[in-house]
Specification:
189 residues, mainly beta, duf1285 like fold, duf1285 protein fold, 2 domains, 3 helices, 45% strand, elongated, DUF1285_C, DUF1285
C-alpha cells in the first residue's frame, strides 16, 4: 500500500476540526490498511518512499496522527490505519529551556516537530545504556506512549545540570524537573 500520493490522501482524511489541536487518535479504531513506505530515522527525519519529506508543515501534521500500539507505530485517521517504520523514537528533543533551579527547577523540551513538553511525573525522563558501547540514549515521554530521543547536545545540557542524589544507598547523578528527580546515571567513582 505504498502508492504515490497516498500520504496526501491520508492527510485529507483528518477532520478539519481536528487540525487545530492534537487529533484524538487514541479514540479512532479504523481497520488496518497495511504498511506504507514511511520511515522516521533516528535523527528525526521523515522519509516517504525513500525520500526525505522536506515540507515541515506536512511532517508536523503527520506527527499529530502517529500512534504506538505495543512496539508498532501507525498513522491513524478516523477511516484508515497504516503501519510505518520508526528507527528509534518518533520525535527528537532538539532544545531545552530551564526555569528555576534546584528541586524547583522545570525542564521544558521542544521537539523537532515543535511539540513542547515539561519533564514531570507524567512525562518522565529515562536513559537506556547500550550494553556493548556504553553509550546512553536518553528519552522524554511526549504524549501517550510516544517518546522523544533527547539530542546529544541537549543531553550534554542535562549533564551540566546534574546533581548527586542517593538512590537505594547508591550515589546517582540526575536532574530535577517539576518536583521530580530523574536519574541520569550512577555517580562515577
Amino acid at each position: 500500500m505504498s502508492k504515490p500520493g497516498q500520504a496526501d490522501n491520508l492527510l485529507a482524511q483528518i477532520p478539519k476540526s481536528e487540525k487545530k489541536g492534537l487529533p484524538p487518535v487514541h479514540l479512532w479504531n479504523p481497520d488496518f490498511c497495511g504498511d506504507i513506505d514511511m520511515r522516521i530515522a533516528r535523527d528525526g527525519t521523515w522519509y516517504y518512499m525513500g525520500t526525505p519529506i522536506g515540507r515541515k508543515p506536512m511532517v508536523r501534521l503527520f506527527s499529530t496522527i502517529i500512534r504506538r500500539d505495543g512496539d508498532d507505530y501507525f498513522l491513524v485517521t478516523p477511516v484508515e490505519k497504516v503501519g510505518i517504520t520508526v528507527d528509534d523514537a518518533p520525535f527528537v528533543a532538539v532544545s531545552l529551556q530551564v526555569e528555576g533551579e534546584g528541586e524547583g527547577q522545570v525542564l521544558r523540551f521542544v521537539t523537532n516537530v515543535e511539540d513542547e513538553v515539561v519533564a514531570d511525573a507524567g512525562h518522565p525522563l529515562r536513559v537506556e545504556v547500550d550494553a556493548e558501547s556504553g553509550e546512553p540514549s536518553p528519552y522524554v515521554l511526549v504524549r501517550g506512549n510516544l517518546e522523544a530521543l533527547i539530542h546529544r547536545n541537549v543531553f550534554y545540557q542535562l549533564v551540566e545540570l546534574a546533581v548527586e542524589r542517593e538512590i537505594e544507598g547508591e550515589p546517582w547523578l540526575g536532574v530535577w524537573s517539576a518536583g521530580t528527580f530523574f536519574p541520569i546515571g550512577p555517580q562515577p567513582e
